[in-house]
Amino acid sequence: MLAILHPDTDENSEDYKKTLHFLEGLQDIQLQNHVVHGQQQKLTEIYLVGNTAKLDIEDISSLPAVEKVVRISHEFRILGKHSPESPSLDFEYNGIRFNQENFHLFAGLCAVDRRENVEIMMKTLQQFGLQCTRMGAYKPRTNPYSFQGHGLECLPYVFELAGKYGIRVIAMEVTHEKHLEEIENCLEACGRPTGVMLQVGTRNIQNFELLKNLGRQNTYPVLLKRGFGISLTESLNAAEYLASEGNTRVIFCLRGMKTSFNTPHRNMVDFGHVPVIKRMTRMPVCIDPSHSVGTLEHSSDGIPDVFHATAQGVIAGANMVLVDFHPRPAEALVDGPQALTMEELPIYLEDVELTRETYLKRIQRFQAAS
Ligand code: PEP
Ligand code: MN
To answer: What 3-state DSSP class applies to 21?
Structure first.
């Protein structure tokens, strides 16, 4: 059961104290407090966990600080959207705001290879007014003999260059809690010139100990990639692991599903699920067209499949795009064949802008009609 308090309830107020006193006195019920920062207001939600069947909704609704009581029937207790009016998560990280309404593009290197390529990438992003990127330092690879990423060694120059070119958030995959420590120490040592969004890859989505560790810290938001071979419910439960440990700054990323029918694409594009995730949960939704499509092929209309897939996600309301670019794809140590080039960046950006504008117009049309 969930007790939603009046917006902006002060924890020192009499109403709050009276409410909490009553709830704390309930037998066999544990309380968990969560504060959700909405666009205009702060919402405090108190989860009542345990034998809630015997509780009377009326008793709890009449408490002075309580606005509304909801019996939670579905399993995504914290990240789930329990009623259509539940506010989406809305957080700011290093000056960039994330929620289910706005939109950000994270173009960058799948894997860091050379300082020079990182610099060209970031400089170009700055020229186009972009403040976010992706940079892989720790790469989980299918084959143990493949390049595993430069790891800690590349972090100082990646962070320094990000600061130099005004990059505020870098999506960076971590596969072990030790990586979090390395990132934290390195950012601290170089004076926090940028920020990091910790990425959990599709292969690690059910690494529950990693999720718990990332959930226990609140310094960094987490980008969680859907498991490519498990159900959506299982992937959303994985997201809930982060929230249940305390970190609700979570973005959910669709990146295609493994099936035997996906060829010639690398994975089956699942961006039709963007509105589904936004309806079921409060998480902003990201799409990764590069790892879904995995090729630069185009059809007779001249538009590469990866552009088409991006458009499919953006026109359905995606809040973030994670996409592979590389100044010299032939030099890339991971996923060069799917990386777009710097020359393609302006065309890609225009295409994304066009699609996003169309999405916003579609919302207006539907709202006017209803
Ligand atoms: C990546 O984004 O670099 C990556 C490895 O993605 P995924 O976990 O979706 O395969
Ligand atoms: Mn990759």
So the answer is: helix
Q: How far apart are CA 360 and CA 153, in angstroms?
A: 42
State the distance from the centre of ligand 2 to the C-alpha of 334, rounded, in angstroms.
6
Computed on alpha carbons and rounded to an integer, the radius of gyration of the chain in Å comes to 22
Domains and CATH numbers, the chain: 2-70 (3.30.70), 103-369 (3.20.20.70)
Tokens matching residue 345 = 């960046």
| pLDDT at res. 86 | 81
| C-alpha to C-alpha distance for 66 and 19, rounded to whole angstroms | 7
Whether the upstream peptide bond of residue 144 has omega within 30° of 0, thus cis, is: no
Q: What is the pLDDT of residues 277-304, one digit of tens each?
A: 999 999 999 999 999 999 999 999 999 9
Cα–Cα distance list, 92 to 76, 96, 144, 282, 296 (Å)? 23, 5, 37, 15, 34
Q: Tokens standing for 26?
A: 């309930």
Model pTM above 0.85 = yes
CA of 291 to the centre of ligand 2 (A): 6
